[in-house]
Amino acid sequence: MDINQIREFLPHRYPFLLVDRVIKVDPGVSIEAVKNVSINEPFFNGHFPREPIMPGVLIVEALAQAAGILGFVTENRRPDDGYMYLLVGVDKARFKRQVVPGDQLILKASYITVKRNILKFSGEARVEGQLVASAEFLVAEKRL
Q1: What is the domain range of residue 136?
Q2: Where are the beta strands (DSSP E) in the chain?
């Protein structure tokens, strides 16, 4: 998926759309996506001006957005159909390495289960093959 297709599945927009490309998606199983980290990101103005580091919560958000795309594809839904996925839980979040401008985050999320309208995913973010963050996510489906 290119950015135009991603925008069909995620309601997020600049500066909060954190998935640039989807490499592959296997509905009900997994997704692999990319976030290119640029010095032009607005959060680098304050985090930190002399040593820019991507905030961990935004790495988790990028993983959750990739998981959201997987959820929409798996459930065969889109925001334009009147659905939204809301992040309702993050468990087992771990951060192993800093992410800096010039890095390319490879975001991988796996579908674990669904109960009623709650979907559960696990995710990992890597840079050049090295694990930088991991977490499990709970996402609630909301009908608009």
Answers
A1: 3-143
A2: 21-26, 30-36, 83-95, 104-115, 118-127, 130-143
Contact at 8 Å (CB) between 105 and 55? no
CA 141 to chain centre: 16
Q: pLDDT, tens digit, for every residue of 90-122? A: 999 999 999 999 999 999 999 999 999 999 999
3-state secondary structure at position 14: coil
Q: Yes or no: say if 100 and 41 are a contact pair by the CB < 8 Å rule.
A: no
Please state, in angstroms and as integers, the Cα–Cα distance from residue 54 to each residue in 28, 46, 49, 89, following that order: 30, 10, 11, 21
Full-model pTM: 0.96
Beta bridge mates, 126: 106, 131
What are 46-88's pLDDT values in tens digits? 999 999 999 999 999 999 999 999 999 999 999 999 999 999 9
Catalytic residue among 47, 77, 78, 97: 47
Q: Is 47 an annotated catalytic residue?
A: yes
Q: For the domain that residue 60 is a member of, what is the CATH number?
A: 3.10.129.10
Write down how long the chain is: 144
